[in-house]
Structures are given as C-alpha cells and as structure tokens.
Design a protein that fits this description.
The chain is an alpha/beta fold. The protein has eleven helices and six strands. α9 links the parallel β5 and β6.
Length: 242
C-alpha cells in the first residue's frame, strides 16, 4: 500500500473485532473488513448484533471478552465505529488501534442524518411492520443496498425497532474524548454519502492525536464491499507511519 516508499508496515495485534452499523449485521461487516485485514495477517472477529435494546451493552461486552487475552484492534462501520471508538477511549491499555468506517456524528446525535433515518425507520416498523417498511425503504435505492437491508433487517426480526432506536440515541465519543485517544486510528469516508458526511470523518481525524482519513465512494462500495475496508486499513497504516 506504500509501494512508492518501498516500506512495509505491520498492523498491530493479530485480532480485530469489527462491529456493523445500525440495522446491519456481521455478514456485511465481514464482507467489508475480513479480506483487507486477512491480507495483513489479522483475523476479523465479527460478533452478531445483540437483540433489541441489548445492542450497546452487548457489543461492549463482546469487546471486553475479546480483549481478555491481550490488546486487540477494534473497528466498525457507522454506529459500530462509534462503539469501537467509545470502547477504545475507555480501554486504551487493551486497544492496539481503531478502524472507523463512516462515522456519522460525534457527541450527542442531535439531528445527524443517520440518527434521523434510524428513528424514522424504527417508527415505520412499529406502525406498518417489517415487510412494509422494507418495501418503502428499499424503493429507489441501489440493488446492493436493498439486498443488504432486506437480509439484515429480517435477521433482526422483532428486535429491529428497538435496535434502531438504541443506535440512533446513543452518543458517539465527543471530540474532547477523541483528543485523549492515543492509539492509531484509521478512518474511511465516502464522499458521496449524505448519511455519513465525510466532514464528520475529518472532524474525528482533526481531534485525534494519531489518525488519518482515506476517502472512497458509495459507488465503489456497491461494486466491491472490500473497498471500504481497504480504505480504513490504508488510513490505519498511514496513521501508524505518521
């Protein structure tokens, strides 16, 4: 990834625990990250989403358990990136680095587009049911995204609305908390994603002591899920180099 300098960088730790985003699942997280991490000898652990309002404590407990044997990389997509960074802030001695793809806000969610979308989807699920919500939510979106939503939301089942609301209302680390996170952080942003604005990724990076951002696109993600994971891994390597 740094052929012009003819330098090889090693990613710290042999295990990375990667969390999916709001309403997503471990299958998508694996499609994004497993291959890019395996290229550097890192095994991706992919915990499935805890049910309903157990989402946050369940994921944080999974990170605690994974780190029992030694420091780990933590990462995630969107809300999963928020939780990974939250855990890293509180557990710097057990964290070797962070991979944050598509962070959606920092601090309280407020009117962040991703939070508003999750709240609206939860309300629609409760009013009209899962299948009607899927029909409305997948109309006019790219086929790959419709397929991902359909699979993941059906897997969440009856806990979907509670899970969406748990993610939508949970604060991400504030910029002041990120400023105290002294581990390398690789951040991936999609410049054509209005739900996860690239500006948020750059705000995270500006606050963090050791971070880099690599930009990609949703169009690339639609063609190749690993494009997002590669961007985050490249950003981590850049943070390690700098």
């Amino acid at each position: 990834m740094d052929e012009d300098r003819n330098v090889t960088f090693a990613i710290p730790a042999g295990t990375a625990v990667v969390l999916p985003g709001t309403g997503s699942d471990e299958l998508f997280a694996g499609a994004v990250f497993a291959g890019p991490l395996a290229a550097f000898g890192v095994n991706a652990q992919l915990p499935p989403p805890p049910a309903g309002d157990r989402l946050v404590p369940g994921y944080l407990a999974a990170l605690d358990a994974a780190a029992a044997a030694g420091p780990i990389l933590v990462g995630g997509i969107s809300f999963g990136a928020h939780l990974a960074a939250e855990w890293a802030v509180a557990n710097q001695d057990r964290c070797a680095g962070v991979l944050a793809a598509l962070p959606a806000w920092h601090g309280a969610p407020g009117e962040a587009p991703a939070s508003l979308a999750a709240r609206a989807s939860a309300d629609l699920v409760r009013r009209t049911g899962l299948e009607a919500t899927l029909t409305a939510s997948t109309a006019g979106v790219p086929r790959w995204l419709a397929d991902e939503l359909t699979r993941a939301w059906r897997r969440h089942g009856d806990g979907l609305a509670d899970s969406l609301l748990a993610a939508a209302g949970h604060p991400a680390p504030a910029l002041t908390a990120l400023a105290a996170l002294d581990v390398p952080v690789g951040i991936a942003a999609c410049v054509d994603d209005p739900v996860h604005p690239a500006a948020v990724a750059h705000e995270w990076a500006a606050a963090l002591p050791r971070a880099a951002v690599v930009e990609s696109t949703l169009a690339a993600l639609g063609e190749d899920r690993e494009s997002l994971g590669r961007a985050a891994v490249l950003a981590l390597l850049t943070a390690l180099r700098d």
